[in-house]
Amino acid sequence: MKSVFINILLLLFLCDSLDSQQVGKKNPVIEEIVGQISADNLRHHVQALVGFKTRHTLSDTTSSTSGIGAARRWIKSEFDRSAASSEGRMSVEFQEFTAPPSQRIPRPAKIVNVIATIAPSRTTTNLGAEGAHANRVFILSGHYDSRASNALDSTGNAPGANDDGSGTAIVLELARAFSKYEFESAIKFVAFAGEEQGLIGSTHLAEVAKEQGWNIQAVLNNDIVGNALGGNGETESGYVRLFSEAYSAADTGAIFRQRNSLGLENDGASRLLARYVEEVAEMYVPNFAVRLIYRRDRFLRGGDHIPFDDRGFAAVRFTVAKENFDQQHQDVRSENGKSYGDLPEYMDFSYCANIARANAAALASLALAPEAPSNVRILTKGLQYDTEVRWRINPEHDLSGYIVKYRETTSPSWQHSIFTSDTTATLKVSKDDYLFAVQAVDKDGNPSLPSIPIPGR
User: Fold this and answer.
1) Cα(29)–Cα(46) distance, rounded to whole angstroms?
2) Distances (CA, A) of 55 to 52, 201, 356, 382, 396
3) CB within 8 A of 342, min separation 6: which ones?
4) Which residues are CB-neighbours of 2 under 8 A, at least 6 positions away?
């Protein structure tokens, strides 16, 4: 018994030593990108968006100074400015389509998403231009439309500073910062329209992605990410909430039964992504936390991550820690000594910048990381006291090895990890009592998304 105990302690010591060398390694490129995020730039973007008076989906499209048409042309011009410094890697487009009449669309309306795409670089894609990296897509999004108290009011003042000028500002700022760098996967920076009318722009893009077979591996949506003072008088700027859904609408039949039988209710694609974002963001943005909220969204609300999650893509939503409902979906006014309206003066741009940095760290890590390990199996060939996990070797040329994570079945986050250069790992714990995952990690320290093992022999 004593020798077994000593062996376990030795294994834990060895794992901790390997962890400190591999898992905690920061990539200088990501640190550089995070360091470029500017609160002043975010303020400038929000003020410019507010200057269009309203960005209601059905507002004026011909004016050069007001309405959603002027707003989307300005957003495109900012993307174009970033693309000019990208050495040809970034392209910019309007994605236009006609939305049919609905509860909040009384007549057919042209909806326009504004999209900037960084293509994977041939010089950094170590699988070649046609490799797995070149096919992966990561999306950072926010919605640029706004609304007043009446969801159909297309002419009244609707500044939309925080909802969602803040999210659009983050998209623009990260597009600027990322444009100067090369990545192994495609990144799309998307400003959606029609969110306030029923997630129209995001639903269209998600459906296009599904029909065309895009390999979207993560959607980071930012909506209401600019205020620190809540409507209850409490101020919180030390963390951001990150919402993620357990099951997707696509998790049906055998997939649902398998996940349920294996105790993987909290290990769907969006939950795995949320944990990844938490770990990476907190490593690169000191003294700022990502708080995981295991829920699709807030009660009575929704966001542009939902259409992607519904179609089986991993998607999460960033939202401030403390909301102020007097400054969301409200006409600008003062009543009984209380001010209403979504204006820039109610925002905290230092806080917004930290949320942007958390996004930047996670997005850059995802886009630079190897492909997640494939064919991951937890061996169940017999009654064993140890846990053996195996997977297929990754094809990347710059691979450092693999991280095997595990946690108790009741834990929301990963508790333990070991590093190995092999494609198998034996853990001195019972597979009945823990949940497991495997990540590939490259020589720069970028970890892939986790792969959850399924039983195998």
Assistant:
1) 27
2) 7, 14, 22, 62, 45
3) 146, 158, 159, 160, 161, 162, 163, 165, 327, 328, 329, 330, 332
4) none
CB 289 within 8 A of CB 196: no
- Nearest-CA neighbor of 315 among 227, 211, 223? 223
pTM of this structure: 0.93
Helices and strands per DSSP (H, E), number in the chain: 11, 17
Task: Centre a 10 Å sphere on the Cβ of residue 255 and count the other Cβ atoms it contains.
Answer: 14
Q: Is 161 in contact with 347 (CB distance < 8 Å)? A: yes
pLDDT digits (tens, 9 = 90+) for 346-404: 999 999 999 999 999 999 999 999 999 999 999 998 788 999 999 999 999 999 999 99
Task: Name residue, tokens 């057919």.
Answer: 108
Averaged pLDDT for residues 59-76: 98
31 SS3 class: helix
CA nearest to 160, candidates 173, 174, 144, 176: 144
Closest CA to 385 of 424, 431, 418: 431
Pairing of strands 387-390, 424-427: antiparallel
Q: How do residues 422-452 score in pLDDT, each as one tens digit?
A: 999 999 999 999 999 999 999 999 999 999 9
159: its two tokens:
């500044």
Q: Give Cβ neighbours of residue 135 (< 8 Å, ≥ 6 apart).
A: 215
Tokens of 373: 């390990």
Question: CA-CA distance, 137 to 78, in Å (whole number)?
Answer: 22
Kind and range of the H or E element at 277? helix 269-284
How do strand 338-340 and strand 333-335 relate by DSSP bridges? antiparallel
Amino acid at 86: S
> Beta strands 399-408 and 416-420: pairing type?
antiparallel
In degrees rounded to 5, what are phi and psi of residue 246? -70, -60
For 139, left (φ over 0), alpha (ψ -120 to 50), or beta? Answer: beta
Task: Give dist(CA 452, CA 91) in Å, integer.
Answer: 35
Cα angle value 378/379/380 (rounded, 5°): 115
Torsion on CA atoms 97, 101, 107, 109, rounded to nearest 10: -10
Nearest to 21 by CA among 445, 449, 447: 445
Task: Please name which of 186, 116, 179 lies closest in space to residue 144, comparing C-alpha atoms.
Answer: 116
